[in-house]
TrEMBL record:
It comes from Rosa chinensis. Keywords: WD repeat. Gene3D superfamilies: YVTN repeat-like/Quinoprotein amine dehydrogenase. One of its GO terms (cellular component) is small-subunit processome. GO terms for biological process: rRNA processing. It comes from the Eukaryota. It holds the Pfam family Beta-prop_WDR36-Utp21_2nd. This is Putative transcription factor WD40-like family. SMART domains: WD40.
Length: 124
């Protein structure tokens, strides 16, 4: 399946099969504009961030949210490492990059929770 994501003003993320020309999944729960999205390397997870301060992890196959974080400062960009153990985020008016570890990779089954964070400062 060749897919494409679409965002509209209704705050719903839609996944389309471009070959079949139809919507195949819908992800909704953000309460403000979505700022970034990325897929996991295996295509099973979709991560999205929003101005509402949320960072959501979606299971693509079942179109269900499997995790969510709320932060004080809106996420402007995110990137997931290929082996899905580290998530990097940048935030509004913040210098540096936040790194989040996927605890399920190290401490057993936490359903993919990204709970521990470190801030690696950068001089930009």
């Amino acid at each position: 399946m060749v897919s494409r994501l679409l965002l509209a003003n209704d705050l719903i993320i839609r996944l389309f099969d471009v070959v079949a020309s139809r919507m195949v999944r819908k992800f909704e729960d953000h309460t403000d504009r979505v700022t970034d999205m990325c897929f996991s390397e295996d295509g099973k997870w979709l991560l999205s961030s929003s101005v509402d301060g949320s960072l959501r992890v979606w299971h693509v196959i079942v179109a269900r949210q499997i995790d969510a974080l709320h932060v004080d400062v809106s996420v402007t960009a995110l990137s997931l490492s290929p082996n899905m153990d580290i998530l990097a985020t940048s935030h509004v008016d913040q210098n540096g990059v936040y790194l989040w570890v996927n605890q399920s990779m190290f401490f057993g089954s936490f359903k993919g929770r990204f709970l521990c964070k470190w801030k690696a400062s950068c001089e930009c």
